[in-house]
Amino acid sequence: MPEEPVALYGPEYKRDPYPLYERMRAERPVHRVEFPSGVHAWLVTGYDAAHATLNDRRLGKNHALGNESWRALASIMPEPQHSRLQVHLLHQDPPKHTTMRRLVLDSFAPRRIEALRPRFQEIADALVAEFPPGDRIDLVPHFAARFPFLVLAEVIGLPPALAREFRRDWGKVVAPVGPQDPGRADYEALLHGLQAYIAEVVAAKRPSRGGDLLSTLVTAQAEGVLSAEELDSMIFQLLVAGQEPVTNQLTTALVALLRRPARLDRLRAEPALLPQAVEELLRHDSAFELTTWRFLAEDAELHGRRIPAGDSIIVSLCAANRDPRQFANADGLDFGRAPNPHLAFGHGAHFCPGAALARAELQIALGTLLARLPGLRLAVDEAELNWIPAVLGRGVTSLPVTTTR
């Protein structure tokens, strides 16, 4: 009998996937899994297997490697094949990946991010100053959904007028919406709206290019280094992948701290712990729960399983980061954990180029909220938190808290 795939969807799974991951790790490193709308994949779970898979040169990211079975469902996967926005870094292999990645590295280099920290702090302070009066606030719309985008706009050179026009719900174009889904029309409207916005960004940068990242990308397209589709895709990746995961990571970090008031209070009292605490919070509950698709060019063995060429392979970063064979007290939260070789930003050639920026944002955001919001506690029962139904990511849609400020 064919193997019954493990379902990776539903409110219970999204609220707490870790018991399922524990069972999967104990059984074997690679499982057949199913996502919404019948999309199947092979999921890698344990730390050693995940680390090896992320560095396995047999595996490619380009969607052209997908087989007919995978392509038959491509229209309901994130970033449908017909979209002009899917040929970005995450879906490229060398040498194209190497060329495209080189274009963004300087803008996200640790030395540049460190130099920008005072500006990031100004942004965080200004957002807190705008909080409505009272002892209750939802930290998602008032902070977590705004801070990462405002920081990103500074880093990539997005003109302020265009930054004000960006709609956060454009990020929903990465959610799978099938051709027969009743929400398909709304989805396509979002996609077209985002494409039009990206065209505005390109048009604004083309006549007066500076030294910022968006100007660099527009120049690369003008010089033939990037195609028009690759330029649009890279801007899309910056705007969505550069913001939403940090928003979600802020929420998972805050939920982890709010579950443990003593840890939260200790971090407020000892802000020097923030760098190590952020690394542990990244490990404990990563916003990048699963990687994007990888493919084998030919049938091959992968950690004891025979995988057909072109089947999609995904790595569970969250399952790897809770593997007790790699991390003592893997389900706990240990601010003193060292070393902490978590995989929250991936590993290998596709290691997140924005990792230094994300770390700085998380440190500044958490430090600011803890310092400015005394007595921070959840304002609702934890069971009332609504976890996003995203296929690849983790986070909550709202985070109501109370404070004694």
Automatic annotation (TrEMBL):
SUPFAM superfamilies given in the database record: Cytochrome P450
Record has Ribonucleoprotein as a keyword: no
Record Pfam families: p450 (PF00067)
Source organism superkingdom: Bacteria
Key word Heme present: yes
Pathway: Antibiotic biosynthesis; vancomycin biosynthesis
Entry-linked InterPro entries: Cyt_P450 (IPR001128), Cyt_P450_B (IPR002397), Cyt_P450_CS (IPR017972), Cyt_P450_sf (IPR036396)
Family label: Belongs to the cytochrome P450 family.
Function: Involved in the coupling of aromatic side chains of the heptapeptide of vancomycin.
Name of the protein: Cytochrome P450
Lineage: Bacteria, Bacillati, Actinomycetota, Actinomycetes, Pseudonocardiales
